[in-house]
Design brief:
By secondary structure, the protein is an alpha+beta fold. The protein contains five helices and eight strands; from the N terminus they run βββββαααβββαα. Helix 4 (about 190-200) crosses helix 5.
Length: about 260
């Protein structure tokens, strides 16, 4: 027996399929990540219009079919976020945020807090494109690690519990490490450490600033944490120049 579901969803990705359809990667408040097909969505007179564009937040009716994909039977816009199209940097930051959610939360297990975090990030980028910097992207990812239950330990050495002389970072150990436990770690400067602690404690609208070198350390800590604890390779935020890197195809780590 087929089933219809109602869900509020953010379109993570939209792919052309066939002559007029679209395959949608969705993150929903109620059902986590799901895939769907919108039949006829690319026709000039499609009933969906622009409601299923990437980064849009939409109320959907999804019909369960025989395959892995739901079929979209109705869509009402909650927030189209047109402001994202006014800035290439904001558009790229939005794509990277959606991609990080898709990689870290790929099941149909609902995480309403992740849905809310992504919605807030996309709304921020749409309303204030100046926020589309490396600091914002890294702060968002730190909060995703927290939601995924793999946020690094920052309050004390992950090896021995020492609260002072925290000079390195080890994903294998689970966070920052002291001088006595720094084997197999990389140096984590005080500025990078302060950024991580502050970013986790502040909303995305109040992300702290940091130097390029510090942000590179933060990104390495996030990247290695995701790879070690979730077997997920996240796309880079920072290029060699310190600017946000354009999104490019990549995949889940093969283990």
């Amino acid at each position: 027996m087929s089933l219809s579901l109602k869900a509020e969803a953010i379109v993570l990705r939209s792919i052309r399929y066939g002559e007029a359809d679209r395959i949608l990667h969705l993150y929903t408040r109620e059902y986590g990540r799901v895939g769907a097909i919108a039949k006829g969505a690319r026709r000039a007179r499609s009933r969906f219009g622009a409601r299923l564009e990437p980064f849009a937040q939409t109320r959907l009716v999804l019909h369960e079919g025989r395959g892995d994909l739901y079929t979209v039977t109705a869509a009402d816009t909650v927030d189209a976020r047109p402001g994202l199209r006014d800035s290439a940097a904001a558009l790229d930051a939005a794509a990277r945020a959606c991609d990080a959610v898709a990689r870290l939360f790929e099941t149909d297990e609902p995480h309403p807090e992740v849905f809310a975090l992504l919605a807030n990030e996309l709304t921020l980028l749409a309303s204030a494109p100046v926020a589309a910097g490396a600091e914002n992207g890294l702060a968002f990812r730190l909060k995703l690690l927290l939601a995924a239950g793999i946020v690094p330990q920052l309050g004390s050495c992950a090896g021995c519990g020492e609260r002072e002389h925290l000079i390195g970072f080890s994903a294998a150990a689970g966070g920052v490490v002291c001088g006595s436990c720094e084997s197999a770690s990389f140096p984590l400067g005080e500025e990078a450490y302060t950024f991580m602690v502050t970013a986790l404690g502040r909303p995305l609208t109040e992300v702290p600033q940091a130097s390029e070198r510090a942000l590179q350390m933060v990104e390495r800590a996030i990247r290695e944490t995701a790879e070690h604890h979730a077997q997920v390779r996240l796309r880079p935020v920072i290029s060699g120049s310190g600017q946000p890197r354009a999104s490019s195809p990549d995949g889940r780590m093969v283990t």
